[in-house]
Fold each of these.
Amino acid sequence: MKQTTGLGRQIFLVWDYFYSTLVTLAKVAGHTFTKADTVEYPEQMPYLAPRFRGRIVLTRDPTGEERCVACNLCASACPTDCISLQKTEDETGRWSAEYFRINFSRCVFCGLCEEACPTYAIQLTSDFEMAEYERQNLVYEKEHLLIDGPGKHPDYNFYELCGKAVSGRAKGGGCLEAEPVNLKSLLP
Amino acid sequence: MSELVSNLLNVVLILVSVVFGAALLTWVERRLLGIWQDRYGPNRVGPFGTLQIVADMIKLLMKQDWVPPFADRLVFIIAPAVAMFVVVAAFAVIPMAPGVGVVDLNIGLLFFLAMTSLGVYAVMFGAYASDNKYAMLGGLRAAAQMVSYEVFMGLSLMGVVMLAGTFNLRELVLAQADGWFIGPQIVGFFIFFLAGIAESHRTPFDLPEAEHELTAGFHTEYSGMKFAMFFIGEYVSVLMTAAMITVLFLGGWLGPGWLPPLAWFLLKTIALVLLMILIRGSLPRPRYDQLMAFGWKFMLPLSLLNLLVTGALILI
């Protein structure tokens, strides 16, 4: 590419452009025989990665109780402020959400709520087919969010290891809890 | 009387099949571009997606017939009609087979060139009437491009005219009985092919409507059926360019006897249309000054040289 003038150079350049155009045409025409990459979605499900983040659910303990203790960490972690909830406490001392509302028209499915959750209650699933005709229908209440199973951590039960007296069970009564330490006996 | 009926039938059949073919071409093009880009293209509506054109037509017909308040109303409405008219009128002179063709003009080639030249008015009217900066730029580009590419479009055909000694397209086809003109006029074929793509402003010469720079160029303000007429006009002009190349360089309806003449004509035309779609699918759009430089500094001298050499060879 030293010399850019001169008839020989010009003719070479013209040939070069012409040739590269022909090669381009041939290569594109060759794609007639390659397979399409399209996934024909409604008939054919696309591959979803194991950690795909879709519709948010609230899970339950192995015992069937709600895992959510209404600590509000998910709502504080949420970058779009789409989670709102209110804590309540039942007569056994167990905390739970009085209402739990996720506005999926704002949710960006970042998964920060799942990371923040101390009890594995809030989890993202691989379902993404949540289209609605009414925007209001994208606001999910607790009964829409709750599922029957434990989700990703089937054996985890927060109240068995949290060290809180609940359901008439004393502190340390959970099967994964140690006996409470008597602070006074720890003194030297 | 029966001659009149058969002539009318000829005219109506050709008009309908040309417009329908152009509409079908929108589907063919999208499908083929899809295949060449490793996807499917429109394949949902009807068998292989062929009813997509019906769906598109319904959609365009249902649209509001909108003329912008700042537009020059009369010219704005005339422009798409001109765009459609000139290309369909140019189709009148194309001989498809013995006995198939609207009119047998002894200046058929000149009529064709005149009609393609008029095509620039459609673009300029549309751009001027839209009163929109993108349309303005598109119109300017279109006018400059079409005027300059017309020059050697005509010149590239003169070699063929010299060889056959006639402007009549039917006689031009018959003159190729002992050899298609693509052989002696390969340079003319190449130049006319490129000029034809430029005249129907398709990629890589679609600067008048360059989507990335000018939104939609001269038809930015158009929608609904007016847009559809520009769109169909473009595809008719694609068909016309392909048919014209077939007539002038590929021996028109001539071919081995195991297929009827009309089938040979259609086969060659379709092959050229597919080639034009392939070119659209593969080549990038040049910069505007590159386009003009390519036209004036390369194609024009080349076509003059072609003319000179052809003339010299005929004289010897």
Amino acid sequence: MRLRGPAGGRVPVQPVPGLMRALAQIPMLARRIRRGRPLRLAVRLMAATAAGALAVAGVGWQPASLAVGTGALTWLLLTTGSELGSGPRD
Amino acid sequence: MISRAVRSLAAIAAALLAVALAPVTLVAAISLTAAWRNGWPASRLYRTAAWCLPMLAVWLAATAISRHSLSPAMVAPHLAWLDVRHRKYLAAAILLAPPVIPAGLLAGGWAWSLRLASMSARAGGRSPAAAASFDQRQWRHQVRAARARIGAAGAVPLLAARGDFIAGAVIRAVGHPARPLARLPASRLRSHQLVIGGTGTGKTTLMLRLWAAFMATGLKRHAAGLAGRPLVVILDCKGGADARRIAGLARRVLQASGAGNVAVWPDETALSLWGLPARQLVTTLVDLIEHGSGGAAYYTDVMEAVVALAVEAPSGPPASTADFLARLDPGWLTLAYAAGGYDDQLAVARSAARQVPDIALRFRTLFRRLGPGLDGPGSFADADAWYCILEGTAEIAVAEAQARALVDLLASYVTGTPAGSAGPRQVLLAVDEFSAVSRRLPIWQLYERARSLGLAVQVSSQSWHGLAVRQDDRYRLAATAEGGIWLMRTPHPEPVVALAGHRASTDSTRLLAGWLRWRRQGTSRLQQAPVADPDLVRRLDVGQTAYIHRGGATFIQVKPLVAGPAALREPARRPTSGAPAPAAVSDAARLEALPADPPGASRGEPPELLAGISALLDQAFGPGPGGPE
């Protein structure tokens, strides 16, 4: 991918280190999911999704439903680690 | 009468408030039940409430953005009440959830802390025994929750993100922070530690985790240029088939932690006793032979003089067992010092000529029993980890001599190896089943001085009494365990528990009002209770340990490392030349592939660097023959 530079010419885009690092983590994450408890992880994911969906279905797109969705997401992020397999440090 | 009325009014007011704030009460009740079922401390509920802040923030921010005011948030309870009246329970719950969930958690945490405090002061419950049964029930709940925590696949990594070491899940903490996971600074692994626990308590599982953590954290420090490469030396003083099984486990676990090469001594590799500097070699050789005191001290002196003559001969120190034994001959000694300038040594050789054959006989017997494991070639520099199997159950005298020699070799290696660019090597000496060799290995002397050598010592024993022969030495070991004491199930934990200290606790009495009826009236007083309850230690299950450090105790369910038993080969006979046995070929090949380790280290220590080692080791181990009384 190339972007237009200030002078109208094309400038090469350097790879973003953070993004590359995040992309490099994907195979690792997949391996950790495989080595962990994927079924439980799926149940957690579904529960969080269901909570968000129920909130929107219950009161529509309101501040409260957004907040419930945020709460479900926070819970998911905090508790997912226990369902993943061992990482490189383990 | 008036106070009773005031209490009744307060109870009615509290009940009315609970009804008025029914949603908060409901959340509080649920959180209270969860805390009771899982044995959580109140802080856990407070933490969960804190994690609800993003939800609360989003709710307030979204309200402010969409309605240009925060006042709609204030009428949320009213809107929810209207939804309830129209039987829209889901909508009511969603409208109330953002403020009610954190408030309920806070209320639940407060109520739970009151309950815990009243039970801790023995003021709660229907009877005075209620507090004891509550505590036992909570212990069961805490154990169940901790087991569930370590059962989760990736919940308990070996190292935390900041390099801390995680031992397992916390069951209960007294005087230490109450966290879900037992996270300890990696520096504790580089300090002396004690592990005490009977057979079948999970001691080996814990130590495997400690060794792996030392290796992993050591490699991280080495990679960061903070220290030299780590070295783990494990002396398994029990021996037998079980030791070989554990050696296989240790090899897999350590290699998984990053160790490049794990040597198993003496089955697969050997070490060279003859690489020791001459003066240290004399001390070590004399100490290998058990000798008495009193009148027998005369023979000890004669033996030491003869060994010194054989080792410090003008032709250089012996290079092997056979070389040394060949020198224990009156004719050889006389001839060796016959050249001019050695008149004193020659006189000693002539006067001790009658005892030399007896001394040779003793050493011949000793080396036959020791086997070829100390006849080299090999040095601790050759591997990242050494698992040394000493047959302390079958041949206790041999194990004692081997332990003495190995510790002397390690101390000499540590003091004699020049520090690399990153610093000296990080060394852990783990002595498992120390009681088998404690009679002749006064390790507490090394224990007190090892920090200056950059050497951490980890001693494990089945009981307090197995730590050393004398009570003073046991206390020295325990008192200098800066890295903490791991206390597993043992029938006599009192001496160790006493080291953890006491804490102030409230004890309340209750007035007996009739048959199995008690009134609330009574008195309370402050008393000192042990930080680590000895009865709790006696009842610990497999894999549970009390970690005692700086006046606090954390009860931990240790997370076992996942490693299947490796196929260790049967003890192979090594060629008499001392070359690695065929069984160790793969290890040797990998060893050759390793870079020089540490930089600048060599197997033969330069004599100038080793000058004075003997004095240092004498200071560490004591110059006198024999072990402690």
